[in-house]
Amino acid sequence: MKIKIVQLLLAGLFSMALNAQTEFTTWGNLTGIRVDDQLMEFNTSLVLLNQWGDFRATRKEGQQIDFKRVDDKKIFTYEMNEHFTWADTIQTTGENEATLGLQVMATADTLINGAYFKMELPGEFGKNTQFSVKNPENMTLGDLKAKFGNATYKAPATGVTIEAPTRKLEIAFNMPTELIIQANDSTEEGISLYIKLAAGQLRANEPYKNTLTIQASGDIDTSPAVIKIFPQQEGREFDGVGGNFRLQNPSMDPQVIDYSLENLRVAWSRVEMPWRLWQPDENVDPIAEAKKGNLDPKVKAAMEMAKRLDSLGIPVILAAWFAPDWAIIGERTRGVNLDGSRGNALDQTKKEAIYKSLTSYISYLKEEYGVEAKMFSFNESDLGIDVRQTAEEHNQLIKELGAHFRKNGLNTQFLLGDTADANGWEFTTPASIDPETRPFIGAVSFHSWRGYTDENLIKWRDIANRVELPLFVGEGSIDAGAWRYPQIFEEPTYALDEIEVYMKILNMAQPLSILQWQLTSDYSMMSGGGLFGNTEDELHPTQRFFNLKQLGSTPKGLKSIPITSNKKAITCAAFGDETTGSYAIHMVNKGATRSVKLTGLPQKATEFTLYLTDIDHSFKKMKSVNVKNGVLEFELQGAGYVSLMSN
User: Fold this and answer.
1) What is the pLDDT confidence band of residue 138, given thresholds at 50, 70 and 90?
2) CA distance 191 to 181
3) What is the number of other CB atoms lying within 10 angstroms of the CB of residue 178?
4) Using an 8 Å Cβ cutoff, are 560 and 236 in contact?
């Protein structure tokens, strides 16, 4: 049976008058309320506790999601068990206030221990946190029995105020319901609140509802920040931003591609090789068929895309998703296999035919379209999207197919890795230490969808150093499942989170380029013009586009240099050239507006121009600032992305 939960979030939409904004993840969990640009943090989720005591909570990629806007409301919907949908509707209800309309419903009569709205409090709520619970007028002794895990408190309530020295949360319930408070004695595990929506026997298709109002307040940290660069410690070069151009929507893609290429400096590109369509029949020569005019339209479009990019001086990387049926083991799989794997392994008994087929595509692209691909990879083959390889097979392919390329006059090299996530670095180990493979590797690559911890990013930097080759982020963004709920791409929270991740990657891993997924209508950084059903507005760039444009304005060839900040809310990346005195310093501030002292600047850097992208500014040139005695002082806008470019 299915349990369906719907959450309507009526949250504080940013406005200049109120200067407040409720923030949430792409899967609908609240992360706090931003007041005067500072986030008053907390984390929420919807939790289902079944009759056997098993928990299931909303999490990243843990449920099927739909997201849409209705007027000024934003709605996530999802189904628990097989499907899980929720709605996130954002509506101003106060300067620091969010109102949540909660509903849980079973599609068949079912017994559960409980369905709860859960709130986890951050570290500011420590041992001295005070709770003021507003109870209904009448309670029974049975109401006070705590049978919920390690509950510290359990009773009916109509609201609760939670106050720490620097933070305060006030939560009011429209209808009295059970409140559960869990707190570890040492507070090492923090404090969690559970607000019950339903429990016991749920009748089929009957909605169980409540409405919560959350008010957040606290100290605003506007203390000055100190940021320091180390220009003498030059690292790897940064070419600029790149883009993926995998064509999937013939009616929508052209307008987005045109705008992107006209308005962005695209340093690198990644284009699909539709291998499955290039040679669907093992016994038919694909080049001969193409020369007869029998080139599949999707193959032709991909080759023309590569030619267009190449003609603009943009290097082309090829990536293959689907192999022909004859080249894989077993029936083509869709989704997750019974053993938990994805995709299909290549049939190693047909290696020579596979190598010949792949070589023929790249050769035809070179001979007929004048494009010699710089590098090739199977997309996310560590995960099986959609060719699956082991690390050893990955190494073998690079070594053997690389030799086959050379034998046939191709200089195309390989992306080592091109893994689904930043945590897939072990996949590269055999190839990175094999001296016979090394000559055929052109660069190292990972995708930034998940796993971008400091530890993982340092691993990728180490791998690139080991093979002495550039590092790429082959697919850049933060939520691989967001194509299912594309209106999320227009949210300011998504834009700020995405560019913050890029800052972290640039600083820790030092890639040559981050290739945005995508610069087409898929996961688009544009809106309107029919994209995602928006036919009311003309095609226009979103905040995410201007973030990328601002980052892409970094002069080509500057080298990564270390940068530090004494504020956790500020994430930075810096580039420079000590010889020319050219510098670009990027800062994402997820805290309040504050003054900054930037130190460590060399004598050649005397003046900078400050640019800002946030909810109200689109790569806007704000002002010029002068360096005095190696120090640059300026105001850093809260909840925004600021860049300093030397003049």
Assistant:
1) low
2) 7
3) 18
4) yes
- Token representation of residue 268: 């690198």
Residue 633: phi and psi, rounded to 5, are -110, 135
pLDDT in tens, 560-597: 999 999 999 999 999 999 999 999 999 999 999 999 99
Report which of 550, 578, 547, 512 is spatially closest to residue 229, judged by C-alpha positions: 578
| Cα(560)–Cα(585) distance, integer angstroms | 10
Sign of the alpha-carbon dihedral angle for 617, 481, 444, 374? negative
Neighbouring CB atoms inside 10 A of 636's CB total: 25
Q: Three-state SS for 530?
A: coil
Q: What is the mean pLDDT of the chain?
A: 91
Dihedral of the alpha carbons of 433, 436, 440, 442, in degrees to the nearest 10: 20
492-539 pLDDT tens trace: 999 999 999 999 999 999 999 999 999 999 999 999 999 988 999 999
End-to-end CA distance of the chain: 64
> How do beta strands 640-646 and 582-589 pair?
antiparallel
The secondary structure element, H or E, covering residue 458 is helix 454-467
Angle made by CA atoms 572, 573, 578, in degrees to the nearest 5: 135
* Under 8 Å between Cβ of 112 and 80: no
Residue type, 413: Q
- Going from the C-alpha of 65 to that of each of 5, 68, 160, 205, 406, the distances in angstroms are 11, 10, 30, 20, 46
Ordered DSSP codes for 165-199: SSEEEEEEEEEEEEEEEEE-TT-TT-EEEEEEEEE
CA 433, 435, 436, 437 dihedral sign is positive
CA distance 622 to 533: 34
Q: Structure tokens of 483?
A: 């194509």
Answer whether 203's CB lies under 8 Å from 107's CB.
no
- Tell me the C-alpha to C-alpha distance, in Å, between residue 481 and each of 437, 449, 472, 486, 618: 34, 9, 22, 9, 26
DSSP β-bridge partners for residue 227: 565, 598
Return the structure tokens found at 119.
Answer: 């709130």
Please list, in sequence order, all residues whose beta carbon lies within 8 angstroms of the beta carbon of residue 590, skipping any fewer than 6 positions away. 39, 496, 500, 569, 570, 571, 639
DSSP for 390-407 reads -HHHHHHHHHHHHHHHHH
Token pair 């999937």 in the structure block, residue = 248
- Can you give the pTM of this predicted structure? 0.93
